[in-house]
Amino acid sequence: MKVLVIGNGGREHALAWKLLQSDKIEQVVCVPGNGGTATMPGCKNLPLAVDDFAGISEYAVNNDISLVIVGPEVPLAEGITDYLQNQGLMVFGPNKEGAQIEASKAWAKALMAEAGVPTAKSAVFTEAAPAKAYIQSAGAPIVIKADGLAAGKGVTVAETIAQAEAAIEAIFQGQFGSAGSSVVIEECLVGQEVSILAITDGLTIRPLLPAQDHKRVGEGDTGDNTGGMGAYAPAPIATPQLMARVQTEVLERTIHALQARGIDYRGILYAGLMISPDGDFRVLEFNCRFGDPETQVILPMLETPLEDLILACIEQQLGNMPPITWKQGAAATVVAASGGYPGEYIKGKVITGFAAAQTAGATVFHAGTRLNAVQEVVTDGGRVLNVTGLGEDFQAALSQAYAGIKSIQFDEMYYRRDIGYRVLG
User: Fold this and answer.
1) DSSP-derived secondary structure letter, 409
2) Which residues pair with 146 in a beta bridge?
3) Distance CA 73, CA 141 (A)
4) Average pLDDT over residues 32-42
5) Residues facing residue 275 across a β-bridge
6) How far apart (Å, rounded) are the C-alpha atoms in residues 229 and 405?
């Protein structure tokens, strides 16, 4: 079968890489893809925008595409699944109505309240003045979130009331465009975050391996939030006992609440949790797609064929699938970023060292890369590469990832040197 993967990041490279391990997959086409997918055997790029629904549909119909997998949240929120399904195509990813669970934090909060999903106390505002008044009464620290999609950068953990008010002003003054038409203000939870990605056919929902991301740009989890500077799986803090609670109190309650609203949700449901020091948890947010960089550590551990899971979801047969099987050990990924990220950075810098990284045992997933006119791989984004290691334990996986990233070179490359510090003790 031929599969079309929509997106251009490390997540999409990892999806294509995993699919091509199956002898059932003849070809993967990435739209628009990146420098890694352009050079991977069995894969090719199609230079269309992710919101060119008509162009994507025309290509898929005319080129016998059997399955479309949507990577990013934006086309899902804009209704790409609905559009392509109306053209007779099989699509993995929730419809526009279901994608609201990520596209609107206020919508997701209301759904969690209906479902009885444990989450932080919050309030929603469409104007700055009442939002600031709420902050004055609630105090700091407090969390300010742009309601809509802001590429993972619309959240401010304000340590003071002044910081909170400044964040509110920035949102309502257009820092995140239409994503900031309203704000969600939440109590500040403390603990460790963990990512629970689950796969669902709208009736049955099964968790994948729990992963832990490193969102801050600086070592020791300092500095600005990013899309993620590294990750590992399985996250030990998500114990079997905690995962059993997540299954019943989060995943199943959420699917039932979606059903009650008449939403047929098929795809990934990704719950970001905060686990408190006493072991309790709250849901911080939901996402409607594979996480990035979590996918780059989850898929290398997956033994069950990915296409089997995806087709079971589309055909609403997940409940008849055998248990998902996983490799033993651990996976870890380290992000190589452009200097200046998550602020301003320069693109177009030549990247070398891929062969040496592979010799070190690492797998390199391209994120912000492209091929230049002379077919060199160059930087084309803030997060440039995900260098992933596998091992019998976290020490081995991280050692392999860091051996790989030390082989990579491009001007002003930056990466955190403490990914996995929690699991290394």
Assistant:
1) B
2) 183
3) 29
4) 97
5) 192, 281
6) 13
**Distance, CA of 417 to CA of 402 (rounded, Å):** 8
In 3D space, the residue among 17, 23, 21 whose CA is nearest the CA of residue 37 turns out to be 17
Between the alpha carbon of residue 80 and those of residues 64, 97, 221, the distances in Å are 18, 11, 35
- Render 281-316 in DSSP notation, one character per residue: EEEEEEESS--TTTHHHHGGGB-S-HHHHHHHHHTT
Question: Tens digit of pLDDT for each residue in 239-280?
Answer: 999 999 999 999 999 999 999 999 999 999 999 999 999 999
Domains, in order of start, for the chain = 2-95 (3.40.50.20), 127-180 (3.30.1490.20), 192-320 (3.30.470.20), 330-423 (3.90.600.10)
Q: Are 401 and 358 in contact (CB under 8 A)?
A: no
Its sign, for the CA torsion 366, 368, 369, 370, is positive
Number of Cβ atoms within 10 Å of the Cβ of 322:
7
For residues 237 and 254, give the distance between their C-alpha atoms in angstroms, rounded to a whole number.
22
At a CB cut-off of 8 Å and minimum separation 6, what does 218 contact? 416
- Our CA angle for 208, 213, 218, nearest 5°, is 175
**What percentage of the chain has pLDDT greater than the value 70?**
100
Phi, psi of 112 (to 5 degrees): -60, -40
What is the gyration radius of the CA atoms in the chain, in angstroms? Answer: 21
Alpha-carbon distances, residue 14 vs 33, 36, 244 (angstroms): 11, 10, 28
For residue 362, pLDDT beyond 80:
yes
